[in-house]
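Researcher: I'm preparing a figure for a lab meeting and need a structural model of a single chain. I don't have an experimental structure, so a prediction will have to do for now. The sequence is pasted below. Please return the structure as tokens so I can convert it later.
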Amino acid sequence: MGCLHSKTTHLHSPDDPSSQLDSLKPDPGNGNNEGEEEDRVPTFKEYGLNELRKATNGFSTDYIVSESGEKAPNVVYRGKLNNNRLVAVKRFSKQSWPDAQQFVAEAAGVGKVRHKRLVNLIGCCAEGDERLLVAEYMPNDTLSKHLFHWDKQPLPWEMRVRVAYYIAQALDHCDAENRKIYHDLNAYRVLFDEDGDPRLSSFGLMKNSRDGKSYSTNLAYTPPEFLRTGRVIPESVIYSYGTVLLDLLSGKHIPPSHALDLIRGKSVLCLMDSSLEGQYENDDATKMVELASKCLQSEARDRPDAKFLLTAVAPLQKQKEVASHVLMGLPKNTVVLPTMLSPLGKACARMDLSAVHDILLKTGYKDEEGAENELSFQEWTQQVQDMLNTKKFGDIAFRDKDFKSAIEYYSKLVGMMSVPSATVFARRAFSYLMNGQAEHALRDAMQAQVCIPEWPTAFYFQALALSKLGMETDAQDMLNDGAAFEAKRHNSWRS
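Model: Understood. Here is the structure written out token by token.
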């Protein structure tokens, strides 16, 4: 795939209507198009263990997406099926479900509950001791991440209201499908899809094991009746919904007992997330607080049902026409990657230039080991010595993040070398990026591709430069190409 055939030769403007996907997305506040949504979800099926092992690269720790990592009792992996569909694969601990038939029957029942507000279950696997669930993949993290561990901006008020409404829609649909029990509803169970819309994980519709605990969170957040009897009832789900409302209101994980004390003491403002100041009307906040209080009643019979949640939250939505990704400040038209990414690919995808720099330093020139050794076969002349010194000074400047000097040294080196170096072009491309010269960076990344046509790094750097130029669709294509060549390399090494 040489440079002449690069996708960057067919760039189009990000304003081109053909690259816009928003018109295909149902209105954020609209409850229609449910049939169309369900049609896009694959039919539930049983997967073979080998297929899921391959999809997760042998259940590699690099593919774990559980926020607790390997420490989670049931680990969730990101995986890619043979048809390039990204999925989430939940792997239960050994002996969680001894009866394979019971597990498959339960999973198939959950798989029938389809809705646009759910992360739909699309399959399972029960081979030997392994018990796995397969669901749609959500690329934009959990509510927990956006509320408690945000990087760029706190979740805005209007998005918090939308989360409350969409999750109420999901619970109402589950009720209608006679799936009234949802285990351990919390901020980790709410995920955001490629458009930034919140969805409720279907994993919560199954227990963690045949006879296992229904709640894994701190006892302070567990419904009182579960503590008394060890049983979950439909009203328990409403209690847990109330704890999620507290998370949304406060931006913190506040024990319900403490929150109720604040509410009874009329200290509602003490409960509210300070980062939301000026974003909401006091009446709306008060109504949300009152709804949380109703959900958290100690007696199950005093709590409302899902229909009540919908009618209570619906009027609080004031910006239904604004897309979720806009409210959250996510990149426009975030596309799910069809291929797994290496650490360098991941760093480029999230525009983490500091991580990219560290990886480049560790990698060095190892992808060009054959070409690098050509110097030893040349006649030892002053010109060769000058070239080695120039490379050395360029690498020192690059290491020390003196990118302006690195550009000067690498530019001089490019003029001196009889055989162009892909790594030098890549390092100069990165230096241009750090210097705010994205067009020069793109040109160098393309030159690196000419030197090594199937070098993933060259494609990743083109993706970085294209993102800086606002060409997100082409950047995504380059990330996909880089990942595809990486997978090809990996498979060739294994064989």
